[in-house]
Amino acid sequence: MYRLSRLRYIFPLGLFISLFLDGSLSNVWAKLFFSYPYSMMSELVLLWLVLSYYFEEEIEIPLIPFAALAGIVFDVYFTGILGLDIFLFPLIVELTKVLSRYFSQSFLTIIMIFFIDIVAFVTLTYWAYSLVGITHMDIGDYLVFTLAPTLALNLVYFVILYWPIQAIYTWALTQKRS
Q1: 87 in Cβ contact with 71 (< 8 Å)
Q2: How many domains does the chain have?
């Protein structure tokens, strides 16, 4: 059903735009996002993937392969090597699927699940980087200076973009093919 819907164009385009905006916003707003000792990570790709899961309705977008592809592009373009995102993006999509089984779909439950997704994503990144010695931040500093600002930024993104993304999906799903 996915290949017959307008989402076959809308979803990859939105994923590309979110990949582009993650890097662009981080570059343009670098003084705000990475002002010592604070650091905020823009996670628009995760926002797009999570909201796509909720708004796809009966059309099943192959989110896991797209999430892995987005992870490859994100890793190669922004770091130059294959890293964590190739595994973490699909893992977060799967976490969203598991958590959504236990809650009804509403704005508050979706934002709660997105909150959990961001915490899981950023914490797994922190643990992996600590394990290999890339970061030497203790857990308290991580919670205050990285996780809290990242959550604040991405929850603002969520509140601002929830209804426009929902409108795009509604339009794509109700539009008749000509």
Answers
A1: yes
A2: 1
